[in-house]
Amino acid sequence: METQEITHPESGGWSQPQIDLLKRTICKGATDDELALFVHICKRSGLDPFSKQIYAVKRWSEQDKREIMSLQTGIDGYRTIAQRTGEYAGNDEPIYDSEVNTHPNKATVRVYRLIKGIKCCFSATARWDEYKQAKKDGKLNSFWVRMPYLMLAKCAEALALRKAFPAELAGIYTHDEMGQADNPTSEDQSHSEECSKPSPKIDPHLLDQILDLIKKLAIGPEQLKTRLAKINKSQLEDLTDKQATLIIGKLQKEWANTMTAPPSQPHLCETISLDTANRLDELFVALNYGPEKQQAILDEVKAPSWNMLTPSQGIFVLTKLETEYAGLSKNIF
After folding, report:
1. Radius of gyration, CA atoms only, the chain
2. Which helix (H) or strand (E) holds 69?
3. Alpha helices per DSSP H over the chain
4. Which of 24, 242, 243, 301 is the most buried (most CB within 10 A)?
5. How far apart are CA 172 and CA 180, in angstroms?
6. C-alpha neighbours within 13 Å on the C-beta side of residue 257
């Protein structure tokens, strides 16, 4: 019997028989537009649907009165996409509000990305009430009963990775995050009022990334209005996810071009706290302080080098830089 060879998404293109197979199996019931979107995201992310690295899930939308397709992967899929950029610099262990209760109320994860050689920290927090997954009877599903800390940490890590790699992860969610979409809901008045509000066209996570980059680049209201007018938009909320992803990529390049990587030196974590060190790194980047300016600050506090900075000297420098950054940002919305 003659068989059709199935090529991996990274090989540069899919055959028509392969796409037909997708529609009969993995994307069963998908419209032509949904299938085209699925194929595009698979090729862009490099995830292989035939190895179950990415899959399509359809859920009923009360607002649209039809099933809507969402693209999902696991946390390993997110890590794979981040790793392939060559800029993923790992993550810290999750931090919980408490580890003595049956489940945490929130989990925070920090991930790191190298931007122009600088290790930048991206932090995100997932809250139990927003992500816990329940069955139809309202009881937690088995994974969230047996491993509540791990499951919430995976959601927090996914949020942090999407902050660090917005262009690469746009349009893809982890099943750990999206499982709560199937939770039973109550038909109370406040819910009805929320449903009556028009939903934004742009993914909230993408909007947050754009607003963060706008602040870092000191883009004022008039300049933002001019940029939006070029794509026939009056406000950021009117952007589609595709437009938002393209804008994020452009703003990230602009931000990277403003950075001046400091000379090779120990990371600022040996004598001062990790939070202080990370914030100092961010402020050096935001204020575009190169080696000469950094050395002037060292001279001011009479520290021989950054790895010899004492906690009190670190707090002094942090306060100084925060004040300078606040002055730079006072006219930015």
Report:
1. 23
2. strand 66-73
3. 16-24, 32-45, 75-84, 128-131, 142-146, 148-164, 166-169, 175-178, 189-196, 204-216, 221-230, 241-257, 274-286, 291-301, 311-329
4. 243
5. 16
6. 7
176 and 154 Cβ atoms separated by less than 8 Å: yes
SS3 12: coil
Cα–Cα distance, 140 to 183 (Å, whole number) = 9
Digit-coded pLDDT (tens) for 116-172: 899 999 999 999 988 888 877 778 888 888 999 999 999 999 899 989 998 888 778
What confidence tens digit (pLDDT) does each residue in 204-214 have?
Answer: 888 888 888 88
pLDDT 10s digits, 187-200: 434 444 444 444 44
pTM of the model: 0.47
Residues 6+ apart with CB under 8 A from 126: 106, 107, 152, 153, 155, 156, 159
Distance CA 7, CA 220 (A): 47
- What pLDDT does residue 120 have? 94
The CA-to-CA distance between both ends of the chain, in Å, stands at: 65
CB neighbours of residue 95 within 10 Å: 16
| 8 A C-beta contact, residue 137 and residue 89 | no
DSSP character for 134?
B
Residue 22 CB: number of other CB atoms within 10 A? Answer: 21
For residue 237, give both structure tokens: 């909320």
Nearest to 157 by CA among 143, 144, 169: 169
How many CA atoms lie within 13 Å of 14's alpha carbon, on the beta-carbon side? 23
d(Cα 2, Cα 290) in Å, to the nearest integer?
Answer: 63
267: nearest Cα among 280, 286, 283: 280
The residues that bridge with 61 in the sheet, in sequence order, are 66
Q: What is d(CA 251, CA 262) in angstroms, rounded to the nearest whole number? A: 22
Q: Cβ(231)–Cβ(244) under 8 Å? A: no
Tens-place pLDDT, residues 270-329: 456 667 777 777 788 778 888 888 888 888 888 777 667 777 777 788 888 878 877 765
- What percentage of the chain exceeds 70 in pLDDT? 79
Report the greatest alpha carbon distance in the chain.
Answer: 79
